[in-house]
Write a structure and sequence with these properties.
Chain A is mostly helical and 176 residues long. Helix content of chain A is 84%, strand content 0%. Chain A contains six helices and no strands. The radius of gyration of chain A is 57 Å and the shape is elongated. The relative contact order of chain A is 0.03. The model of chain A has no long low-confidence stretch (mean pLDDT 81). With 162 residues, chain B is mostly helical. Helices cover 71% and strands 0% of the residues of chain B. Chain B contains eight helices and no strands. The longest helix of chain B has 24 residues. The radius of gyration of chain B is 16 Å and the shape is globular. About 6% of the residues of chain B have low confidence. The chains are: A mainly alpha (176), B mainly alpha (162). At the A-B interface, helix 1, helix 3 and helix 4 of A face helix 1, helix 2, helix 5, helix 6 and helix 8 of B.
Chain lengths: 176, 162
Amino acid sequence: MSERVDTEFTQLLDTFIDGDLEHSQRQLLLARAAEDPALGAELASAIELQQALSGMPRLKASASLTRKLHKIPRRESRWFSRWVLRPRSAFAAILVMSLIGGHELYQQQQHQLAQQAELAQAKQDLALVLAYLEKVNRSANTQIQVTVNEATARPVARITTKTLQNQLQPRQEFEL
Amino acid sequence: MDKTYRQWITAHQDRVWSLALYLLRDRMEAQDIAQEAFIRLWQHREDMHEERVGPWLLRVTRNLCLDKLRKPRAEREPQEDDLVDERSPELVLGKNNEASRLHKLVAALKEPYRSLVILRDIHQHSYQEVAEVTGLSQPQVKTYLYRARKQLRQQWSEQEHE
């Protein structure tokens, strides 16, 4: 019996066991089993094993397990009510949530206060800077006015007149 | 809903229990798993379709059993009455030597072979149901089952010749 034939026969055997073998293939399988004692023994063993497997008991759930399974809905609901709906648990849950909420609120308020203080300080700094700038501006204006007034009030200096006269006199080296 | 859930218990408890016990071979553990599977069913009852309940329960049961089997035995909280368990499969099958021997052979198979043999050959589920429970495709189920049966036949006949 070659390996190929063996595999082919085993596959046929498997389909036969499942009851899905067509009539012609079934005849082929039985013919091969009749020809070859080894294949015949394998077929007999397979049928015996399959009958033994299908005859194994499907175990029944015990009465105690059935009772436990029927208690599941009540037990699950009780679990819910025990932890969520009972007054003491509810009070504890509200307390914990309030504490968490209060802490959050306190942190938020602290944060807002810090922001407000920073803003006030910035406003104060800005006012100082503006006052300083105004003062500097006023001082610069005064200085400009003084300078301009001085310049317009001063008479033309002698040296300026002399310089202008020199410029107007003809140069000697160009005279003929 | 309560009534429907009770009907589901009646319809599926034996299959869930049997699968858990065949996989775990331990009554207390199988009972815990069966309860856990039905607790999950209760929690998912609102979005459960009637026809999906069976395969869904078996899939959850199998997955819970495989998780349990992955843990070393010492971590699996042995119970005192494991030793006097009058309903473990070996003892239930004890009166029938052949069935007991066969169960040991099935239990010694690796996954997914073991689950496939239990679901298909012992519990007689259809290929489609087995595929749904194991999360395998139908061709995969057929291929693995072919290998599992071959291995089982070999061991079965070897034991017969001993």
